[in-house]
Write a structure and sequence with these properties.
Radius of gyration: 15 Å
CATH architecture: Roll
CATH topology: Nuclear Transport Factor 2, Chain: A
CATH class: Alpha Beta
Number of domains: 1
Distance between the termini: 21 Å
Strand order of the largest sheet: 1-2-3-4
Number of helices: 3
Structural class: alpha+beta
Mean pLDDT: 79
Low-confidence stretches: none
Order of helices and strands: HHHEEEE
Largest sheet: 4 strands, antiparallel
Helix content: 25-40%
Length: about 110
């Protein structure tokens, strides 16, 4: 792994990162939550991949009394070198945040 990292060669591809995220999301939250987040998008972020689910439609987002959205997309940050999961959870569904996660950007 040290040599791979020094050369910048990642073991985990974008496709593998998406499959890891699918398995974890299905196992932890069920098939319905995976279906709600499909298709998953992936972007490179330094030494990691960020895999993110689909933003829910505005009408489907429940809000707190303060107006904050509750049903945001799933997001996971995975090491490109060894598959370690750095972050895993749901993000707040804020407008404009997903512009970085283009569905065509599949590396």
């Amino acid at each position: 792994m040290i040599v791979r990292r020094a050369r910048g060669d990642g073991l985990i591809t974008a496709a593998i990162a998406v499959e890891i995220a699918r398995m974890v999301l299905r196992n932890e939250h069920g098939q319905s939550e995976l279906d709600r987040n499909e298709p998953l998008a992936v972007v490179a972020d330094g030494d990691a991949w960020i895999v993110r689910g689909r933003d829910p439609p505005p009408a489907a987002v429940a809000e707190t009394p303060e107006g904050f959205p509750l049903a945001g997309p799933f997001q996971m940050r995975i090491s490109r070198f060894d598959g370690q999961i750095f972050e895993c959870g749901f993000v707040m569904a804020l407008p404009g945040v997903s512009a970085r996660f283009s569905r065509e950007d599949k590396r």
